[in-house]
Amino acid sequence: MTISVQDSPTVERSVTYRSALITGGSRGIGAEIARRLAGEGWHLTLAARNADALAETARRLRDESGVEVNPVVAQMNDLDQVRNLVREHEDRFGGLNALVLSAGTGTAGRVADMPAKTYERMLDVNFRAPITLIQAALPLLRKSAADDPARGAKIVALASITGVAGEAGLAAYGATKAALISLCETVSLEESANGVSATAISPGYVDTDMTAWKRDELDPSAMLRTGDIAELVLAVTRLSRNAVVPNIVLTRAGDSIWRA
C-alpha cells in the first residue's frame, strides 16, 4: 500500500511497501523469516511473549534493513491478545500482505501418559491461536489482496512433518500440526477467489532452541536450518495470486524421508 511517512519533521515522502505480521518473531524460525522479509523491504509487526527478546530483534532489524518494525508482546494462549495483534498491525500499517504463523509449542510424550494440560496448551498455541488470528486478519488480507491483484495476500503457517506422518512420542504435537495443515487447505478453498491463499510448511527437525532436547541423539548438523524455512516463505510471497501451494513438506537428508 502507499502511505506518507516523515523523513524529518518537515519532509514527507510517498512510499509503497508490503507488510507482514509474524508470530513467534523474536527468535528461531520466526526471527529468520523476519530478517529475510526485512531485507526485501517489508515492514513488520513481530509478536512474541518475551518483551526483551522481541525488542532486541526489532532493534536489530531496524538497524540492518531500515524497515519499520512494530514489536507487540502477546501470549498465544490468550485469544484476546491474539486478536489485538491484527488491530495493532492495521493501526500501524493499514494493510496486511502476509500473515506468518510461526509461534508454536511442543512437548514429547506417549498418548497413554500425556496429561490433559499438556495437550491443551499445544491445542491453544498451535491451533486455536492460528485459527483465531486468521479469522481476525481475513478482512485486512482481502483488502490488501484487492490492492495488489497480481500477487494477492498470503498466509504461511509453520506446521511439521509429524502432521503428515505420525511419529511415536509426538502424537499430540503432530495432531495439532495436522489440524493446521487442514486449516490452510480449507482457507485456500474458501478465500483464494478473494486473492488470499494459505500454505503450510511442514519440516522435520530444525536447529532451534525448540529442538535442544533432541541434541543428545540428533546432532544439530543433521537438522534443517532456519534459513531453509525462511527461503520457502519468501518463495511463497513472490507467487502470483493464481498459484496456491497447500503444503510444503521438508525432510532432513538421510535414509528416513518421512521422519522428523
Automatic annotation (TrEMBL):
GO CC entries: membrane
Listed InterPro entries: KR_dom, NAD(P)-bd_dom_sf, Sc_DH/Rdtase_CS, SDR_fam
Residue ranges of coiled coil: 44-92
Record keywords, A-Z: Coiled coil, Oxidoreductase
All copies of domain Ketoreductase, residue ranges: 18-204
Stored Gene3D superfamilies: NAD(P)-binding Rossmann-like Domain
Family indicated by similarity: Belongs to the short-chain dehydrogenases/reductases (SDR) family.
Protein name: Short-subunit dehydrogenase
Source organism: Nocardia bhagyanarayanae
Lineage, highest ranks first: Bacteria, Bacillati, Actinomycetota, Actinomycetes, Mycobacteriales
